[in-house]
Amino acid sequence: MSLEAFHHSEPLTLGVELELQLVNTHNYDLAPYAEDMLRLMEKHPLPGSVVPEMTNSMIEISTGVCHSSSEVLGQLTQIRDALVRSADKLNIAVAGGGTHPFQQWHERRIYDKPRFQELSQLYGYLSKQFTIFGQHVHIGCPSADEALLMLHRMSRYIPHFIAMSASSPYVQGQDTAFDSARLNSVFAFPLSGRAPMVLTWNDFEAYFDKMTRTGVVKSMKDFYWDIRPKPEFGTIEIRVFDTPLTIERAAALSGYVQALGAWFLAEQPFIPTEDDYLVYTYNRFQACRFGMQAVYVDPATGEHMPLRDHILQTIDHIARHAAVTGASGALHLLRSEAAAGQNDARWLRDRQRDEQLLGEVSRQAALRFRGTPA
């Protein structure tokens, strides 16, 4: 099977996907209502799409093609409001967050869709443990070669994406001590982690051909990389974000990606090299484990500094590009929270400290997603 041609897209356009939790309103554990939600959501004319995910207590929403983070927010608001109305009819709730705080993976059921059933046969219990929830951000690229260049430039900012979106401190009722425990589950899959260091589409096609000849992969969907090209859309897809607790943060993160992309295209600030990846896994671990309190090792200089400081420096550096793309408001939100060392993982821990009951934490997270104060 040959690699699909890289389709044309408008540079810096955005698309956002959110994997969401369906919870009951009794104890706020996960609830197997994906099929019912999809049936109700079909009645709403909406941008983007609403589709099932691996297990039947999950649902994925996505925007259409957007030109700004404010347009992303507008589309997510429409979809979120329809989700809330549908969930209310079923007496369930919808929540963000990268993991459900106390669900037990063995209780999950694989959604009845051929690809999910195939993955379950291949990966066994890992498939049910993949009841985790992420945000994916697509950004349009001018060409196939420039998509690979953008992918490897974005890789320097993977720790930033993780720390700002981290919302998975709890797994099966336990505080993991990680801000983003979700990515530990992703790392269990083969072909996860980083993409190969190639900077031309011809070289990437050669790599893909070698992989398909081995029989290990059949399509780009078989790569679980942190960032992967999506040739059918003309984008790269960043996959390390935990699903935020609010659509406002989800939209703001897309604005941050867009401003970074605008900086890369306008100024070509650096050429990525294989040596960038010497510290990649370390930086990734630091961001997952410590969030805003992580240490960041600059791939170019080897300098060690607080990740939060590097996030703030980066936001200031790309501010002029954010103004052009309409992402200034998004960066303002992220900057104020980074300055305070705040992310959704801290919010969840603060609620648990106050309430001493993870079911109540999930209830408040569901209220936060629907835009209602707890």
Structural write-up:
With 374 residues, the chain is an alpha+beta fold. It has helices at residues 34-41, 69-90, 114-123, 125-129, 144-154, 158-165, 182-187, 201-214, 247-267, 280-290, 307-317, 319-325, 328-339, 344-355, 358-369; strands at 14-24, 49-52, 58-62, 92-95, 134-140, 170-171, 174-175, 192-193, 224-225, 227-230, 235-242, 295-297, 304-306. The strands form 4 sheets. Strands 1, 2, 3, 4, 5, 10 and 11 form a 7-stranded antiparallel β-sheet that branches. A two-stranded antiparallel ribbon has the order 6-7. Strand 8 (192-193), helix 8 and strand 9 form a beta-alpha-beta unit. Helix 2 (69-90) runs antiparallel to helix 9 and helix 9 (247-267) crosses helix 12. The relative contact order is 0.17. The model has no long low-confidence stretch (mean pLDDT 93).
Strands, helices and their partners?
Blueprint: E1 14-24, H1 34-41, E2 49-52, E3 58-62, H2 69-90, E4 92-95, H3 114-123, H4 125-129, E5 134-140, H5 144-154, H6 158-165, E6 170-171, E7 174-175, H7 182-187, E8 192-193, H8 201-214, E9 224-225, E10 227-230, E11 235-242, H9 247-267, H10 280-290, E12 295-297, E13 304-306, H11 307-317, H12 319-325, H13 328-339, H14 344-355, H15 358-369
Parallel strand pairs: 8-9
Antiparallel strand pairs: 1-3, 1-4, 1-5, 2-3, 5-11, 6-7, 10-11, 12-13
Helix pairs in contact: 1-2, 2-9, 6-10, 9-12, 9-13, 11-13, 14-15
